[in-house]
User: What shape does this take?
Amino acid sequence: MNQLEGTLDGTGKKIAIVVARFNDFVTSKLLDGATQALIKNGVDEKDIDVAWVPGSFELPFVASRLAASKKRDAIICLGALIRGDTPHFDYISEAASLGIEQASRETGIPIIFGVLTCENMEQAMDRVGGKVGHKGEEAACAAIEMAHLNKQI
Ligand code: RBF
Assistant: This one.
């Protein structure tokens, strides 16, 4: 039996991060955690590209274009959606999640969903190094693992 499984060795991997500026108090922390985890796991700093977009709605467009260029082994999308008083949260979170998933399948490049969807700022802060861990670091590890697995297929 052959088992396919990616490792967490980022040596030689090229990664792009697309990060939303909306709620940048949170997304800058996601970005810090992601870049630190990439570097800690062996990714060279010069092999990390960071693209800023206005909000999470724009993540799939830029991620899809970066993936289509085939210059990177994986893309990470980072955003923070915080529910407000109108249905915007639902429209943007659906567009972001479905758009990222579709871009990933269409390009054959792993695109990682590092978008927080929270009821309030407290839930978001819990997920950027608080009591529920660090979703930026987790996204970085998922990117390295998927970059490896994608090469084995
Ligand atoms: N972008 C986010 O990344 N997180 C949000 O919580 C968020 N809330 C929004 C709420 C409203 C009412 C609007 C109009 C936009 C919001 N955006 C948010 C920005 C959105 O992702 C996008 O950048 C803009 O709608 C421009 O296309």
About this structure: The domain at 19-148 is CATH 3.40.50.960 (Rossmann fold). The first strand starts at residue 15 and ends at 20. Strands lie at 15-20, 48-53, 74-82, 111-118, 128-130, 133-134. The radius of gyration is 15 Å.
